[in-house]
């Protein structure tokens, strides 16, 4: 039998490979090669031979059926390891399983019920501020709002200026994740990210010490108290690493989706009208409640379409730790793997006219994502699906419901709404709007 061959594709220049093309526009890079080679191809990016996989079948292989071939720790670039530390995102095997179980209660079930009121209270403060301001840039406002929510619920931070300082530190940290020049000097992006990380660690150490003595209802107190089946809990070092991760992952992504949500609603008045109508029917039955959050099928469709068309995360890296074969191609251990969320969401055979914003794709009659499993993967999928998915969806619904029930907004002229994907997926100028009560 003929030995299986490596996937098609090019390795590019010596050392650099095809890194510069990839970093300049990761979406077009993968899309072009997908069209040329299909759902699996090889390249060389970020200093390593890399296999890229696209489409539901390939994604199911990576995220679910052949997970044992892949490592998260060996996959994410070095910057992630240095800046995000020894957190869930970079753990594998038994260590990951244990920590994920310890973290689940802080982000699911009864804990979430306790979070609703805080999410609403903080949202109201911002609505009032926006009403007074009338014109502002939504991306930056959502970043503060979602960070206030994350830091209050996760860390119990109730002081506005402390939250603003931490939020700025996280912006510096995030910028460092995506720089391809990780020189640790004080004036480089990476150096500033490292300095930000140190200040964040100092802050978290203090908070954890306080909560160990006086536990409250915030997520960090739940993490401190959480014990596995053998009675083990997380060490202080582990707690700090997981808290950095939760704060980082807990607001950048929701900021991106909320910004695109408000942009698409302003661009598509007919969609906004239907969403407003759904909210007004619910509002006539009483104030927003946990029960009501489960009765918003149209808003859910709109959010699924935002997840598809404007996924905040473009894809995921893995390290290949066991040789594997896919579609007759052989991939050796030691390679890097990238699975593409953006390009999977843009496949014509799953989503006809993929560039069109159309929430009815997800109506009960059409359900375009149900033809194949792993077609909609904005939150990843399989056993390591985003641990914050329920938290994020609840938060976005609460904010959207308040906006739709009482406010109107229009996009201000003279700004670029072009998509920028790195470090966070956003409209280039951040979406400047005029905002008023309805
Ligand atoms: C719109 C909001 C969000 C989006 C689109 C999103 C997206 C994702 C994606 C795509 C992954 C999987 C990455 C991969 O397979 O390589 C992931 C994992 C993760 N997310 Fe989220 N996320 C969101 C919100 C949140 C929130 C609110 C939190 C925490 C409060 C969070 C915490 C995490 C963590 C800890 C992981 C790693 C899980 C594990 O490996 O077991 N995310 N997220």
From TrEMBL:
Keywords: Heme, Iron, Metal-binding, Monooxygenase, Oxidoreductase. It comes from the Bacteria. One of its GO terms (molecular function) is iron ion binding. Heme binds at residue 386. Its cofactor is heme. Pfam families: p450 (PF00067). GO terms for biological process: sterol metabolic process. SUPFAM superfamilies: Cytochrome P450 (SSF48264). Signal peptide: none annotated. InterPro entries: Cyt_P450, Cyt_P450_CS, Cyt_P450_E_grp-IV, Cyt_P450_sf. Belongs to the cytochrome P450 family. This is Cytochrome P450.
